[in-house]
Amino acid sequence: MSVFEHGEFDKHERVAFWNDEKTGLKAIIAVHNTYLGPALGGCRMWPYANSAEALTDVLRLSKGMTYKAAMAELKLGGGKSVILGDPRRIKTADMMESMGRFVESLGGSYYTAEDSGISVDDLHNMAKHSQYIAGINAKYQYTGEPSDGNPAPSTAYGVFVGLQAAVQHKFGTGVNGLTVAIQGLGHVGYRLAAHLHAAGAKLIVTDIYPENTQRAVEEFGATVVAPEQINSVKADVLAPCAMGATINLESIAGIQTSVIAGAANNQLSTEAMGEMLRQKDILYAPDYVINAGGVIDIYHQRFDSSAAAMKSHIERIGDNLSAIFTRADDENKATNEVANTMAEERFKY
Ligand code: NAD
C-alpha cells in the first residue's frame, strides 16, 4: 500500500499506523498540516473493507480539517484518525485506551475528538493515557448555560448566523418572512429551525422520522414534505442538515432556491457542483465554513476560553462567509473554490 504516491496524499506531515495485537486495535492517524497550530480532528471508527480504504479516508478528512480550521480562524491545523472495524462488534474499553496511547505517542501534534462510531465515553477511556483528547469535559454552551458536551447547539447557531449572511448577500434582507427548506431535523437541523422560527422565517421541513417533523409542525408551524421532495420545493433557502452529496447531478436541476446554506458535511457530490450552482445563480455557503461552530466550540472548551469568546468567534462565521461571497462575485468564481483559496492563503506547508 503506497502512502506518498497515494491519490489523496497532499503534503501530509505525518501518517502513523498503530497495531495492538492485545486489544485488536488497528488505527491510522494522519496529520495534514500544523502551520497554524496542533492538528485537531475527530476519531472515526468504521468497518472499512480494507486498510487502503481507511487510508484514503484519513488522508482526505485530515486535509479537510486543515481548511476548516484555517477558515474558522482557529490556531489549529488539520488531522484525523480512523480505527478499522465495526464499533458495534469489536469496540472495547481496552481498545479505546490503546487508542489513547497512540494519540499520546504523537506528542501533542494531534488532538482527537468525537466522530462516527466514537462516543464521549470512548474519549474518556482514551484520556486515561493521553492529554491530547478534546471534546470532553465541556463546561459551557455559547449561551453561557452548562453544556452536556454536545457541540450541536454551537454548530446550529453558526449555521443560523451564516445563513443570515448568505440571505443578506443575496436578497439584502434578514430572514424574516423568507421560506427556508430544512432537510433533516436532527441535533443541528432542529435547533436551526428554532432559530429561524424565532427570527420570523417560514419553514418547510423533512426527515425520515415522522416524530421529528411532527415536533416542527407543533412548535414552529412548519410545512412537511416527503424526503425526496425537499431538494425541489419552492423556497428562498435550502438548508441541507442530514447527509452529504445531496447537491449532485440528479438534484441540481430541480433546486428552486436562490441560496443553499446548511450544516451537512460534503454537500457537493463533486467540487464541480459549485460552479454549476454559480451558473444557476444559486449562492452556496461552503459547508465547512458554515458548519464550523462545532469545532470552534471544541477549541474553546479545550483551550480554556469563555462562553462569550466562543459566541463571538462563532459569529465571525458570518463575516467569513460575506468575505467569500464578495470575492466570488468580484472574481466570477464559485464560492467553494474561493473558500479553498482563502484557506490556502492562511496556512503554509
Ligand atoms: P443527526 O444524525 O442528529 O441528524 C440528521 C437528521 O437527518 C436525522 O434526524 C435523520 O433522521 C435525518 N435524515 C437522515 N436521512 C435523511 C433523508 N434522506 N432525508 C431527510 N432527513 C434525513 O446529525 P446532526 O448532528 O444534526 O448533523 C447533521 C449534519 O451536519 C451531518 O451531515 C453532520 O455531519 C453535519 N455536522 C454536524 C455537526 C454537529 O455539531 N453535530 C457539526 C458539523 C457538521
UniProtKB/TrEMBL annotation:
Keyword Amino-acid biosynthesis attached: no
Keyword ATP-binding carried by entry: no
Keywords: NAD, Oxidoreductase
Domain of life (superkingdom): Bacteria
Domain Glutamate/phenylalanine/leucine/valine/L-tryptophan dehydrogenase C-terminal: start-end pairs: 149-348
A Pfam family it matches: ELFV_dehydrog_N
Biological function: Catalyzes the reversible oxidative deamination of glutamate to alpha-ketoglutarate and ammonia.
Family that this chain belongs to: Belongs to the Glu/Leu/Phe/Val dehydrogenases family.
Protein name listed in UniProt: Glu/Leu/Phe/Val dehydrogenase dimerization domain-containing protein
Organism lineage string: Bacteria, Pseudomonadati, Pseudomonadota, Gammaproteobacteria, Alteromonadales
